[in-house]
Amino acid sequence: MSNSINLIDSFQEFKEFKNIDRPTVISVLEEVFRSMIRRKYGTDENCDVIVNPDNGDLEIWRTRVVVEDGFSEDDDLEIELADAHKYDPDLEVGDDYIEEITLESFGRRAILAARQTLVSKILELEKDEVFKKYKDREGELITGEVYQIWKKETLVLDDDGNELILPKTEQIPADYFKKGDTIRAVVHKVEMANANPRIIISRTAPEFLQRLFELEVPEIFDGLITIRKIVREPGERAKVAVESYDDRIDPVGACVGMKGSRIHGIVRELRNENIDVINYTNNTQLYIQRALSPARIGSIKLDDEHKTAAVYLKSDQVSLAIGRGGHNIKLAGKLTGYEIDVYREAEEVEEDVDIEEFADEIDGWIIDELKRVGLDTAKSVLALSVDDLVRRTDLEENTIHEIIQVLQAEFE
Predict the structure, then answer these.
(1) Distance separating alpha carbons of residues 102 and 82, to the nearest angstrom
(2) What is the DSSP annotation of 264-328?
(3) Helices (H), 22-107
(4) Residue ranges of the S1 motif domain (predicted)?
(5) Residue range 58-104, pLDDT digits in tens
């Protein structure tokens, strides 16, 4: 009709509705205009609002009952016969008088108010839709583009332009991004903050490593291999316990791939994080033994009540079991659920011990000084007198006495 208003043209903001289906938008538009009708006429019960979903045309039809002159009790619901005859001389008392209401008749101020209401309602709907969409995707792997980098977090945009937050705490320490980079992460947490959805993504969560395994290892994706547990020190080391329900499938071999082909891609994505893939077992001793890989274990004493394990191994295996920065033993404990303590095997007490084994008690520069003069084991140091050690090294006598005390304690 000539005076129908094309809403899509009138309200430019709504040409593209992100994340919102058209029927929902039409419903919002209809409600906004019904609100305008109620403000102007007191009621919308006798009005039909029709929004064409194909082209956005709007029609508003108002119906009033024709009453005898002087008997109208409510001008919003009734029209006197004389007034009705101005528009249609054939109308009689009791007939319905139907008229079309144009958008312009509401006045410029009301239209601007409606426009503002529409904007806020649509934005609110969009926020709700984004929240629901990502709430359902928690733990899923997503890809986004780095848009802005701040000190404590990085802003990432998904394919629809939704904002995702990657906090510094959820980044691998070696991560380095610049604007425009494509990154992968998992949806970690979705919350509403000040009526806005805040979508936190993570590259340090165990789920991130799990999703990468699912991408690289078809047997995991197909359910032939199950990941029982993942523990990580992001950027340093990870341990993944896997299990196969098919005896013909080696779960560790399938995860690593030929010559490490499958795991190499994951390691690169995790900035060279060391990944130990372990065959899960219900045998606790064997599980702990595998969890402490690559160290070779001599024996294990378990205390199931207190969930502790005393692990005995050869001297040259102690540092392997503990790992750099203690990561290996810490992760093995998290993986198995046992607090693990390592001990040198008793029969090796009288054997010599590498000077590097005392790194926790003797400063590194002192160890370097001893090794510089060829003293690279505990007994080689103890074999010399204090005067000899002072003469051969740049160490002070007090320091020498302290070193001897530490080394002798090892053999007592």
Answers:
(1) 23
(2) HHHHHHTTS-EEEEEE--S-HHHHHHHHTTTSPP-EEEEETTTTEEEEEE-HHHHHHHH-GGGHH
(3) 22-41, 81-87
(4) 139-204
(5) 788 989 998 888 888 888 788 888 888 888 888 888 899 898 888 88
